[in-house]
């Protein structure tokens, strides 16, 4: 069975820098209560020599979660703070004031940092703060990416230099997705759900696709190995457990041994590297695939219906006496 398991690990990082940059760009281009903030800032008496501290675009701080709506043209609106148990788009790990940055880079008349500088600021100011906030457990190849939010354009122009650091989840295209629960308490594994299909590209990156599109394998189960092991399991330990667990999942998914046999598909599973386990990722995927020249043949269509293998229907297999044909579990 080991030959059926792809040795290339499927935990790949979504481009966190681009995702975070897109978020900040969205906030720079929209307003969420910003006119009120700007009015407060510009109402200081001209005769006063006291420097008025700009009003921040948000009072949210570490441990709080944020959400917003996204318009059809990609702009963020209705920026609000919500309980982290609810669906949210961002969890704050730290709150930074760029006005105190040790240079005049972010002075009163300075423009907002561009995408490249934002990525540098995330590395300089957000990365370690966020890892500490997560209790030292952060898997850079997992479901969370470290990101940051800058003030909307009007607030920045009025002097607000607040930068929020935190974590978010994104899809393959870098679009921010919703999540629920505190990140520190979540399994960070980047895994798919039963019935989803995964395409593996030439760089061994994995992407969720519609099962009607070309793909590499179809997921039959998600297995949390933390329910099995109280220590970081070796690859051999994972293989020993997942061989049986994923075979059972395949039989259940296909409706018995005969449908699996005639599909010509083989059982497949992913494994978790020790570094990812120690960083908070403990789940693996079971799936169905067909061996091909580069490891995976190209499947199209769901294994539970009509599908092709490298453009052709599954080859016909001879009738045989079923070895096992348990009823499907639900």
From TrEMBL:
Query: Which stretches does the entry tag as region Disordered?
Result: 309-330
Compositional bias, Basic and acidic residues, is annotated for: 312-330
Question: What span is annotated as the signal peptide, if there is one?
Answer: 1-24
The protein's name: Septum formation-related domain-containing protein
Give the top-rank taxon of the lineage listed in the UniProt record for this protein.
Answer: Bacteria
Which InterPro entries does the protein's record reference? Septum_form
Residues annotated as domain Septum formation-related: 62-286
